[in-house]
Amino acid sequence: MQTTCDMTPMDEVQRSFDGLHGPCRCRLTAEEWDALAELFQLTPRELDIVRCLLLGKCETAIGLELGISVNTVHTHLGRIYRKLEVRSVAGLLLRVFSVYVDQIARSTSSTATPTAKPAR
Questions:
Q1: Other CB atoms closer than 10 Å to residue 23's CB: what's the count?
Q2: Contact between residue 28 and residue 99 where contact means Cβ atoms under 8 Å apart
Q3: Pick from 120, 119, 89, 113: which is nearest to 32 by CA?
Q4: CATH code 1.10.10.10 for 10-109
Q5: Nearest-angstrom CA–CA distance, 119 and 117
Q6: How far is residue 40's CA from residue 46's CA, in Å, rounded to a whole number?
Q7: Segments making up each domain of the chain, as ranges
Q8: Which of 1, 65, 97, 109 stands 20 to 30 A from 57 (CA)?
Q9: What does the pLDDT look like over 38-91, one tens digit per residue?
Q10: CA-to-CA distance for 107 and 34, rounded, in angstroms?
């Protein structure tokens, strides 16, 4: 059953990922997730949180899924926001999507890993 906190205004971002890779749970390949983590210097836990956000989960649902408190989710989100230079979940999702389209999808198809932060 879907709760109201599982619904986000980022459905267009989700649909865009579906269009690129077809409907699947993670939408990005393991290689693409690794490239994203390397590009933004995300820890494995921060990457887990980004994945959950891309799936439309709220902080409460993320905490329950990962077995951490909502306060810990907030702490990780603050660090992720600084690393991605954004101020909101919407900004985070748009940044991830734009980086994916601009750099990661291209570089993983040519087996190169991106090395520089994208322009804002």
A1: 10
A2: no
A3: 113
A4: yes
A5: 7
A6: 10
A7: 10-109
A8: 109
A9: 999 999 999 999 999 988 999 999 999 999 999 999 999 999 999 999 999 999
A10: 12
